[in-house]
Design brief:
The chain is α+β, with helices and mostly antiparallel strands and 326 residues long. It is 31% helix and 27% strand.
């Protein structure tokens, strides 16, 4: 096994490292990464961001939103948690979790923590989740990555992933909300996050393991890959499944109901109704929305460009945009 220290808490850089060592610089043995991030929401490959994330809360609390290449549900990570990655040659077509989760369970056991595999893709302590895992294939390699809640801000996790269930229809895979706990609360003796990392890495790498540094050339390419494949608006929002959504805004000038068809993060069709008063038809408002990104700033700009500001009695475009998109 080869351990590679990424030295970064940038989620895009670390995902870029996974891609780089799976596709562009495959190693002769299993690669093991152990890393963490700034506050981040990682959305699964097949998920709809609008259903998974309270974007307004995330923006207000400087929580990054990114889509990973693997399936599964949305997870929240921060400097109080760790991520681990195994990369090796794909010898079988079937997705297998246990072979990558078992070493983690053993490492936790060495620290006095009794963790269990729930049979699907999670690790638990006393029935509460401490780790979510996902797996995918790249360039003939299997990439298995998972999270470890060590001393994560669980209140912020809950707030960032609690979404109002307004009227929305989609075919996305939605996250299963489960009870969670931090590993630090179950250790027999206090330990810092850095000490925890050192112990886990040492156990999994073993006496026969090796370490491999990231060169300057590696780092430059990883940064480029991270931005291209994970850091853009298109990679996060443009990959959301198509969905229909209905949002209602209640204003001093009356109520407005917005019915939207969104595909790849862009409003493709819109209809507006309600008991509001306006100097333009609802079709004009809908037309201004069509073709813009489904996000608050883009919606507000589209309405302004469409000449809607001041056209609806006692309803500003800022208020409309806030009703339409988080």
């Amino acid at each position: 096994m080869i351990y590679i220290e990424t030295g970064s808490d940038d989620v895009c850089y670390n995902f870029g490292a996974e891609y780089y060592f799976a596709v562009e610089k495959p190693m002769p043995d299993t690669v093991f990464l152990f890393w963490r991030t700034t506050p981040t929401l990682m959305v699964g490959r097949y998920q709809n961001v609008a259903e998974e994330v309270d974007k307004a809360y995330a923006d207000a609390h400087h929580i990054r939103i990114v889509r990973r290449m693997s399936g599964g549900g949305t997870i929240y990570t921060d400097p109080g948690g760790w991520q681990f990655t195994f990369i090796e040659e794909a010898r079988e077509e079937e997705i297998r979790f246990r072979q990558y989760i078992t070493p983690v369970i053993r490492a936790l056991g060495e620290l006095g923590v009794e963790a269990a595999f729930n049979g699907r893709n999670d690790l638990t302590i006393g029935g509460k989740k401490i780790s979510g895992n996902a797996q995918y294939r790249l360039g003939g390699r299997v990439v298995h990555h998972g999270s470890l809640l060590f001393c994560t801000d669980l209140e912020q996790m809950a707030a960032a992933t609690t979404v109002d269930r307004y009227k929305i229809q989609s075919k996305s895979i939605q996250s299963v909300r489960e009870r969670v706990t931090n590993i630090a609360d179950h250790l027999p003796a206090p330990m810092t996050a850095e000490e925890f990392k050192a112990r886990i890495v040492s156990h999994i790498l073993g006496p026969e393991g090796k370490t491999c540094p990231i060169t300057q050339e590696d780092a430059a390419r990883i940064r480029t890959l991270g931005q291209e494949k994970f850091g853009s608006w298109e990679s996060t929002y443009g990959q959301s499944p198509a969905f229909s959504i209905q949002r209602t805004g209640r204003f001093p000038g009356g109520s407005m109901i917005f019915r939207l068809e969104v595909k790849r993060g862009v409003i493709r069709q819109a209809a507006v109704s309600g008991d509001f008063f306006a100097s333009v038809d609802g079709d004009v408002i809908a037309g201004a929305l069509t073709g813009c990104r489904y996000e608050r700033a883009a919606v507000e700009q589209a309405l302004e460009r469409g000449g809607i500001d001041g056209a609806v009695y006692r309803v500003s475009v800022k208020e409309m945009a806030a009703a339409i998109a988080d």
